[in-house]
Fold this sequence. Notes:
Blueprint: H1 3-9, E1 10-13, H2 18-28, E2 34-37, H3 39-45, H4 48-55, E3 59-66, H5 70-82, E4 87-91, H6 96-113, E5 119-123, H7 131-136, H8 143-157, E6 161-163, H9 169-176, E7 181-184, H10 203-209, E8 213-216, H11 218-221, H12 226-238
Parallel strand pairs: 1-2, 1-8, 2-3, 3-4, 4-5, 5-6, 6-7, 7-8
Helix pairs in contact: 5-6, 6-8, 8-9, 9-10
Amino acid sequence: xxxxxxxxxxxxxxxxxxxxxxxxxxxxxxxxxxxxxxxxxxxxxxxxxxxxxxxxxxxxxxxxxxxxxxxxxxxxxxxxxxxxxxxxxxxxxxxxxxxxxxxxxxxxxxxxxxxxxxxxxxxxxxxxxxxxxxxxxxxxxxxxxxxxxxxxxxxxxxxxxxxxxxxxxxxxxxxxxxxxxxxxxxxxxxxxxxxxxxxxxxxxxxxxxxxxxxxxxxxxxxxxxxxxxxxxxxxxxxx
Length: 239
């Protein structure tokens, strides 16, 4: 993997205030390519926060984990796409019709703005969940089987890929083929605090397993020197 490819593989999760996020991205400007705008930022600042980072030269993964009736999701995907999101997350558990409508909304927005369509990635099983957590909500199948089932459903219905833990990335690549977007949270460089994540991996291991994008938050954002932390992950990926 080249240095440019490594930089493009990392999505920095900006789960903080807008002021903190802008200060951090100012430091990483010219190095990082992608940022993740999740509920923490979007619910407070709305679509303008996506514009903020797009105008600063970053690509944006809008991680809203959309999950509602199909009609609502079509409108939500349309609006999120118009905001400038490059990737948008949607829950696989919403079912095939919901995902199909989300795809239609993204396509309608792309036609209106005459631009590239926002990519949809389907949430499978959150990386904070393990087998016991799944069982507690009535899902008795093993985590890997549940991820596989949702991946097949979502991509058949029009999703461009899947969000899964790095532990499932290898099977997802085998199952979905070379063009699928496989986005993996739960990335922890060696020696990092695991935090609330359960199914984790190092950056290099996740890419080797088949991940397209690595969502990395606290190991960079809470590092004493975020730029050095980012550069260390790039170095690991290019080694």
